[in-house]
């Protein structure tokens, strides 16, 4: 069980870090550039906001689930399959926001 929880802990930390870096980078672009078209400002704000919600809600929820699994919480019998299933759902959202940031990178390069 420790291997499973360690693997998920590493994945969680990596994704949380990567998403935080993306948010900070694009918030900085938003704060420092006065020549961004309104439409792009909205895209940046949307991507940053959605990512912060993902980190503060879904990834936190997964972290709590992982802690319960590690403690062997008997009230809620959490299996490795439960962790894998929840993680798969979270990854769909992670990949969605990464795609939004990727579109923003293409916009920035083409500017």
Brief rundown of the structure:
The chain is an all-alpha fold.
What does this 3D model show about the protein?
This protein is mainly alpha-helical and 111 residues long. 86% of the residues lie in helices and 0% in strands. The chain has 3 helices and no strands. The longest helix has 34 residues, at 38-71. The radius of gyration is 17 Å and the shape is elongated. It starts with a helix and ends with a helix. The model has no long low-confidence stretch (mean pLDDT 91).
List the helices and strands and how they pair.
Layout: H1 2-32, H2 38-71, H3 80-110
Features:
mainly alpha; elongated; 111 residues; 3 helices
Determine Rg (CA atoms, Å): 17 Å
Which sheet architecture does the biggest sheet show?
none
List SSEs in N-to-C order: HHH
Helix content: over 70%
Low-confidence stretches: none
Q: How far is it from the N-terminal to the C-terminal residue, by CA?
A: 49 Å
DSSP strand tally: 0
General form: elongated
